[in-house]
Amino acid sequence: MQTFLDFEKPIADLEGKIEELRHISNDGEMNIAEEVAKLQTKADRLLRQSYAKLTPWQKTQVARHPERPHVSDYIANLIEDFTPLAGDRLFGEDQAILGGLGRFRGHSVVVMGQEKGRDTASRVRHNFGMARPEGYRKTQRLMALADRFAIPVITLVDTAGAYPGIGAEERGQAEAIARCIQISLGLGVPLISVVIGEGGSGGAIAIATANRVIMLEHSIYSVISPEGCASILWRSGEQAQEAAEAMKLTAQDLLRLRVIDEIVREPLGGAQRGKREAIEAVGDAVERHLLELRDLDDQALRTTRRDKYLEMGRAGAA
Questions:
Q1: pTM score, two decimals?
Q2: What are the C-alpha distances in Å from 101 to residues 38, 86, 104, 275?
Q3: Following CA atoms 150, 145, 126, 54 in sequence, which dihedral angle do they give, to the nearest 10 degrees?
Q4: Which residues are CB-contacts of 248 (< 8 A; sequence separation ≥ 6)?
Q5: Which pairing describes strands 220-222 and 262-264: parallel, antiparallel, or unpaired?
Q6: Strand ranges in the chain using DSSP code E only, listed in sequence order
Q7: Separation CA 195–CA 214 (nearest Å)
Q8: Most buried of the four, 7, 92, 162, 292, by CB within 10 Å?
């Protein structure tokens, strides 16, 4: 059963009527097919109008939609011969981050990303995509492996942020994230990152300090969640919508600010309504950037990556 967001209620009502009509037998008094076609046209028009003018808060809701493609979907559809690698060789395994080796359209790659899970059991198992220090130390191990064997790295970002629990802090959450960023900046191989849903805080930048950062059209990327920002500024999460407006967290804002390099268009109604099309579009974008980066030597990759992030500060100051 499809999940509808708050602002999609008029669309949900129309699609509900369409579904009802499709289950009514045609007794000759009314042309069911014609009526369904009219309602479908109206629903499509309303969907197009709604998604053409989404507010930052509405985009936040879309980015968090439970039916959007997950990291596991991208890996299953884009990566051949995927071999998962587990554990940080220091503490344990963190299933919030999936990672391993595989082949992407003929290229050997190391791929990793945060998996949120689909139902209650899998969400608990994957800790809702919020990684602990061992998860980030696993990504460090995979990045080091990629660097040693000259294999490009693809990261898929979808997290509300790193896990803030006491145990995670005791095991060095901040140090693990900082070390991820340090290793990312020093990689001598292409690093491409895609924000496929929610890119939150240090949990996102830990695996997104890349040569090229791509965002899906209705994804978000920010230093803190709108609710977290509102709780700090207004001492209440009720102003989350206002915070989202001020934070410039949409793909369109971030492209204008030169924080990201490309926006990948989503199917009408968001990636959740056209999963295969969204996944293929991401694959096409990643392949294009990978081909552009593959001829750069290791020093050029490091230099351009570091310059990219230094330039953000200068652009912001301007």
A1: 0.90
A2: 49, 11, 10, 23
A3: -30
A4: 222, 254, 257
A5: unpaired
A6: 79-84, 97-104, 107-114, 153-159, 191-200, 212-216, 220-222, 262-264
A7: 6
A8: 162
Under the banding of pLDDT at 50, 70 and 90, the label for residue 318 is very low
Domain boundaries along the sequence of the chain = 6-53, 60-317
Q: What are the pLDDT digits (tens) for 266-285?
A: 999 999 999 999 999 999 99
CA 2 to chain centre: 20
**Secondary structure, 3-state, 216-239:** ECCCEEECCCHHHHHHHHCCCHHH
The CATH homologous superfamily for domain 60-317 is: 2-enoyl-CoA Hydratase; Chain A, domain 1 (3.90.226.10)
Cα-based angle 140, 145, 147 (whole degrees, multiple of 5): 95
